[in-house]
Amino acid sequence: MKDNESRNISDVESGSFPLIGIVPQIDTKSPFRHIRLFPNYLQALDRSGAAGIVLPFTKDARKLRMLIELCDGFLLTGGQDIDPRLYGAEAIKDADYAPERDAFEPFLFPMIFASGKPVLAVCRGMQMVNVLNGGTLYGDLPGKDSPESQNRDFVLHPDWEHPLDGVHEINVAEGTLLHKIAGTDRIRVNSLHHQGVDKLGEGLTVAGTAPDGLVEAFDIEGPEFGLGIQWHPEALFDGDELSRKIFAAFVEAAGKNCENKNE
Ligand SMILES: [Mn+2]
């Protein structure tokens, strides 16, 4: 047997790669309340050199602490709108909220942040970080048939018809983590969100704004790597260099934990 064929399990373990804990998404349309996950989150992590595992819905802090200890970074996923009652506003009639996530994430996220490990917060994930830091959201951003859409400076944020297109620009603030990753002042992104940051939470620094002034990205104070983004780099991964750079930077930061763990 050649040397490289005689690897045992401890060799495999020492050939380390970052393990990323992914916040589960839920299918609110399913009568069984299926956990669902857009596969491109897993694929983007896989192709960036990490492995993603989906965290379980549980209120057992011991289990979550053990899993958080095991993981090297955390991906806070997108999904349904956040129930505005979480930030002191009124729920919108007939909205599709995900009560499982609205209950679980305020329990889970502080535990994740207490670990100090890298966090990439996408769309709903970013909005929840804002809410849990004392911020508020616009609960119902105007759509394409709204009266606001007639304004000259209108930006359509819930642009479901163009999920894979760079539909609006973002001004990237110098000195931020996002600027360091992007290496430029202007980027173009997709826009699949129906809520957005209104009042900014504590410990967050605006890193990107849309032409209408809406916050599209922030740096999160605390973790070694903390980035919240309102758009979906996992969906754009194949055709967009910036998306690959974001995942590469996140996985690289998580990899530093991983190296430490194996020393
Ligand atoms: Mn947008």
What does this structure look like?
- This protein is of the alpha/beta class and 263 residues long.
- The chain has one domain (3-261): Rossmann fold (3-Layer(aba) Sandwich).
- 31% of the residues lie in helices and 19% in strands.
- It contains 8 helices and 13 strands.
- The chain has helices at residues 9-14, 39-47, 61-70, 99-115, 124-132, 177-182, 233-236, 241-261, and strands at 19-22, 25-26, 35-36, 51-54, 73-76, 119-122, 137-138, 168-172, 186-189, 196-197, 204-209, 215-220, 226-229.
- The strands form 3 sheets. It has a 9-stranded mixed sheet, with helices on both faces. Strands 2-3 form a two-stranded antiparallel ribbon.
- The chain is globular, with a radius of gyration of 19 Å.
- Bound molecules: manganese (II) ion.
- Manganese (II) ion is lined by residues 157, 168, 191, 193, 210, 216, 230.
- The site of manganese (II) ion has 7 residues, from loops.
